[in-house]
Every structure is written in structure tokens, then in C-alpha cells.
Design a protein that fits this description.
Blueprint lengths: L13 H23 L33 H12 L2 E4 L8 E4 L2 H9 L11 H10 L1 H4 L10 H15 L2 H5 L2 H18 L10 H11 L16 H22 L10 H29 L8 H9 L2 H32 L1 H14 L9 H6 L1 H13 L6 E4 L4 E3 L2 E3 L4 E4 L1 H4 L45 H18 E4 L7 E3 L3 E3 L6 E4 L1
Parallel strand pairs: 2-6
Antiparallel strand pairs: 1-2, 3-6, 4-5, 7-10, 8-9
Bound molecules: protoporphyrin IX containing FE.
Length: 510
Amino acid sequence: MKLLRAGRRVISSSSGQQQAVITTLHDAQLSEEWEQAVPYEKVPGPKRLPFLGNTWRFIPLIGDFQIEHVDKVSKRLYHKYGKVVKMEGLLGRPDMLFLFDPDEIEKVFRQEDALPFRPSMPSLNYYKHVYRKEFFGDNCGVIAVHGEKWQDFRSRVNQIMLQPRVTKMYVKSIAATSQELVDRIKTIKNRNHEVPADFLNEIHKWSLECEYLTNRLGCLDSDAHPDTQRLIDAVNTFFINVPILELKVPFWKVWNTPTFKAYLNALDTIREITMKHVTTALQKLDKEESGELSVLQRVLRLENDTKTASNLALDMFLVGIDTTSNAVASILYQLSLHQENQATLYEEINTILPDINAQITHEKLEQMHYLKACIKETMRMYPVVIGNGRCTTSDRVIGGYQIPKGVQIIFQHYVISNLKEYFPRCDEFLPERWLKGSELSKCHHPFASLPFGFGRRMCLGRRFADLEIQTVLVEIIRNFKIEYHYEKLDYHIHPMYTPNGPLKLQFLNR
Ligand code: HEM
């Protein structure tokens, strides 16, 4: 019989003895569950080939998996194999277990370890822990970091990144930055009111400006510092190369492939620019120049530690820019396709903020339920991060199967949140389903749409992201009616889940 490690026994006091009894009962229950479960070998999934495992599936021309279309690959796997699918034999990485079942996802999250382990990117792990080890030392941030080092860092920055009291203080600056994006749209749109094909890049600039690492970066200025575009390009290069390094044959582990070189250079660029911002933040703090403290300055003031500040900044640049900007691009696109919903949203904004120049405040945003519903509905249908995961740190029974320690559990959020089983009329854009009291709101499973993850490792930037997205939408929708007059765009992974094609939106002045 396989032993399950379910916890430590504490037998030093009477309450300790009670605890020991509970733990032993729990152990016994788990052992029984394990014995009744189906062996791991029986989990369905694509068969591996000798030597190449399943990695060949990502080889162009012969393979049937395209990185850009992992969304469609996941759907296919679900329809072919069901709610629990094993993906084994990807060279250089552990087996993955794809979960398409919110009940099972909830179970995994509820039993989460105190130090949850998200399947990390080995390539970023290499960068932080080997290639630039002297720079990062023991204080590596949170991305691709695990165990006590992760916990130590995360608990220090949680209080700045996640406290509503702190994020609230930034509404005014985020609103000012969003106003800058509105001005920029007015400048770049043509006589037909249409923005250029690379409009997403302008949203990236807005998102970068929102990071509040120093008080103002000037990213949306027409004479923005060249570092703005360098940083945006570097983050893009990083993300585009991650899946290539992780899912294709990992030649980079043996020699410096061009993809790997580009990836390392991109990370070096992000690191170099980050350090400049930390230095500026520090100088301003020293001179007591700053009125409103930037996020970096708050970390510096709290910790008096430039390492923590720079590593937080690096992680924020890595995962905070493209996620938020692609979410905004996707929501604007959906609103342009769904004019009735856009009109309802405009009505809500206009009722709560009748004066177009009135200051957006936290209290006003709180009243905008339809706004939040539009955001949630877009994230349900097109989550910018289509899946998430955890590594099992002990043997577990998942979906009725014996899953050994070390397997990477991948939560297939995109597929799940587009199944009618969990969201009736799932193919329709219906923000109403997120409003309290609506018929549709009653039936969805709380773990069927989790765009920011869940638990202790949940997105560190979610409060900022929410605030930024809400604010910029209010600013844009109260200024413009958005339309789109071209062929409907499909979505692809590039590097986030985003509309595939030029976002030539029309912004008609209100
Ligand atoms: C729409 C915008 C965003 C989305 C959809 C998003 C989504 C996610 C998801 C799914 C995770 C994994 C959570 C888990 O494992 O349970 C995550 C982690 C993370 N996110 Fe975000 N994110 C967004 C914006 C941001 C922003 C703006 C920042 C920073 C300013 C940020 C910083 C982070 C960090 C640092 C982590 C790693 C947390 C850890 O491992 O402890 N994110 N995000």
C-alpha cells in the first residue's frame, strides 16, 4: 500500500493528542480513498512516442499542437478524453494533469499546502537562480520562486500590493494616466476616428505608466524615453519565448539557442531598466521630493531594502504590463462588438459621474456594478491567462485517480469557463450573469472562472489590475463610443490570450 503524507503528528499536550487522533483518522481516510482510486497509468491522454514522448506534437508540420493555439488544443483534449487528461512525456518537464472540472479544482485549492508550488518556468528559474545568481542572491521575488524564500518575500510585499487601503490611494494617479491615454487616442486617431493597427502598443504604454514605480514615467508622451519601448519589447520577447522554451524540445538546456539568447537578453534589459527606476525612486525618497509615494518608494520605506524593491519591480514588469493591457484591449474589443452592452455601461457611468470631467474616485467605482460585470464577462470568455497550475507535493487522489507527487496539475480555466455546463448560454456575451439577483448569476460554480488564480499564490497585482482596468474603461467610455468595422477577430496566445489581428477600433467623440 502506498503511504500518503497528510501532515505532521503533534503529541506533546492533550490538545496535541487530539490533533494526533484527527491526523491519524485523516491519514486513514486518505489511504482508503487512495486504495479505491484508479491507478495513474489509467488516466486517459495522448499517447507518447518512444524517445520523443509527446514533445513531437509541438514540432511544426508533423505535430498537431500549436503553441499559439493551445486554447484549441486544450478544447480538443477535453472533448476527446474528458475532464481529467494526462499529458506525459514532454521532454525536460514532469507529467501534466489537465483538469477540466471545477469541483476537482476546488478540491486541489482547498487542500493547498502552506507553501504552494506553482509549476515554475525552468528557464526563468535558471535566469534567477543560476545565470544571474549574484544579482538575485536569496531574495528573488515571487515568480519562479518557491518554499520559504517565496513566503518571506510575498509576506513582505502583500501589505503594499494587496491592501485596499493602499491601492485606493492610487485611484487619482491611475485616473490621470488613463486621461493621458484618452488624450493619446485623440492624437493618434485618423480622420475616420480610427486608431492605428498597433493600438495595443499604446495600451502597453498606459499599463507600464500605471506600474507606479516612480511617480511619473511619461510613457504616453510623444517624446517618451526610449526605455519605454525597450521595456515593452523586452517583456514581449520574454513572454513569446517562454512557451517555446518550455514546451518544445529543450535544446536550450544543452546550448545557448538563439531563442534562449534573445530570452536572456530580454530579461537583462528588464533588469537594467528596473534598476534605473529603483535608483530614481530612492533618490526622490532621500530628497523627500515625493508627495504621493510610488509602490517602490513604499517598499523602500518599509523595508529599507533596495533588493526587495528591485526584485518586486522586476516581477511587476514581467507579469503586470501585458496581462493588464491585453485585458483592456480584449474588453474594448468586446464592447465594440456588443453595442447594447456598451450603451448600458455608458448609461451607468453617466448616471454615477454625469460631469465628463468629474474625478473618478474609489467610491464611484464601487457603485459601477455593470462595469465590473463587463470585465468579468470578458475574462470569463477570454481569460488573458488561459490556465494556471500547482505541483503536487504529496500523493493525491484527483478526479478519482491516484496522482503521484510531483505531477503538475493544470487548471484549464479557459475551456471550463466556456462550457455551458457551468455557464448557461456560454457563447453569449452576457455581463448580466455577474449581477446579483439575475437569473443567470445563480448557477455558476465559484471555481469555474478564476482569472487571477486562487489561494495564497493568487495574483499579487490583482487589486491594482482591477483598479487600473475599471478606471481606464470609465475614462474611455465616457469620452468615446467605440466601434469596430472589420472582420471579426479570432483569439490567439500571443503571448497572452488576445484578439488576433490589428485592433483598428473607431473612437467616436461623445
Ligand atoms: C488582468 C491582469 C492580470 C491577470 C489576469 C493576472 C493573472 C494572474 C494569475 C492567473 C496568476 C497566478 C495566480 C495563482 O497561481 O493562483 C498571477 C500571479 C501573479 N501576478 Fe498577476 N495578473 C494580472 C495583473 C497583474 C499585475 C498588474 C501585477 C503586478 C503589478 C501582477 C503580479 C503578479 C505576481 C507577482 C504574481 C505571482 C504571485 C505569486 O506567485 O506569489 N499581476 N497573475
